[in-house]
TrEMBL record:
Subcellular location: Cell membrane
Record's keyword terms, sorted: Cell membrane, Membrane, Transmembrane, Transmembrane helix
Membrane topology designation: Multi-pass membrane protein
Transmembrane segments: 20-46, 84-104, 119-143, 174-190, 202-223, 235-257
Species this chain originates from: Bacillus spongiae
Protein name, UniProt field: YihY/virulence factor BrkB family protein
Coiled coil residues, start to end: none
The keyword Acyltransferase belongs to this UniProt entry's keyword annotation: no
One matching Pfam family: Virul_fac_BrkB
């Protein structure tokens, strides 16, 4: 295990994971607000509010980031632009797909392969991965916030007993981490320009799923208790916190890919 960690550290350094994570953070920052605008505009047709979306982000994001997101959303939505729905989805898919393209390049470097797929195929793969991430965001939003209402609806429509409601409460909280794991498996499986087994993506996906939650909670605690970015950066402190959080998230995702590649090399498998 010690030699594995040591070699992993060398691979992370040589593969320029920090540089690719910076690209990922930049494009995710560009896609975050269009995505939230799209969700808020979409929810205007449903009996839910902006706070329902922010409640999901609040569980992971640092407090300064949440303040920044809330103020920006309120400022944009007050303008009442009817074209926000279409703008949000187009801007989200474009900017997030560029971020996923950085993930693909990093995975190719981890597996030591060149990108030989046609440019159009690269775009298609990036778009598919982007749509998968958007799906996860919707699921993360639906299950914790709206899960209780969904359970009541299913129970009422199908005539299930109270036992179903008890089981559903347990399932809806366990399903979100599982779906997060599945999406990471898809990213690590489709991303590199190399045929790999689906199960070969499991180690990195497990690390990324657990690591992202731990890093998010840990960084949020650090910002709340120890750090004071506003004292250093003033009014843009919230932006800096958001960028650091996205950067750390990008590092976790890319290290997961390095773990998969190193694990296969250690086992002597043909990737």
């Amino acid at each position: 295990m010690l030699s594995f960690i040591t070699e992993l550290g060398e691979r992370v350094k040589n593969s320029e994971v920090s540089g690719f994570a910076a690209q990922l953070a930049y494009f995710f920052l560009l896609s975050l607000f269009p995505l939230l605008i799209f969700l808020v505009t979409l929810l205007s047709y449903l009996p839910y509010t902006t706070e329902d979306i922010l409640q999901v982000i609040e569980d992971f994001a640092p407090s300064e980031t949440l303040i920044l997101i809330r103020s920006t959303l309120n400022e944009v939505m007050e303008k009442g632009n009817t074209g926000l729905l279409s703008f949000g989805i187009i801007a989200t898919i474009w900017s997030a797909s560029r971020g996923l393209h950085a993930v693909i390049k990093s995975l190719n470097r981890a597996y030591e392969v060149e990108e030989e797929r046609p440019f159009l195929m690269q775009i298609v793969v990036s778009m598919l991965l982007t749509l998968a991430l958007i799906f996860v965001f919707f699921l993360v939003l639906l299950l914790p916030v709206f899960g209780e209402q969904i359970g009541f609806y299913i129970s009422a429509e199908l005539g299930f007993s109270r036992f179903f409601s008890i089981v559903w409460e347990s399932v809806r909280w366990a399903l979100t981490p599982f779906v997060l794991f599945v999406i990471f498996v898809v990213i690590y499986f489709l991303g590199p320009n190399k045929k790999i087994r689906c199960t070969s993506a499991f180690p990195g996906a497990i690390f990324a799923s657990i690591g992202w939650v731990i890093v998010s909670y840990g960084f949020s605690y650090y910002v709340r208790i120890f750090a004071n970015y506003s004292a250093t950066y003033g009014s843009i402190g919230g932006v800096i916190v958001l960028m650091v959080w996205l950067y750390l998230s990008g590092i976790i995702i890319l290290i997961g890919g390095e773990i998969n590649a190193l694990y296969q090399i250690r086992k002597g498998e043909n990737c």
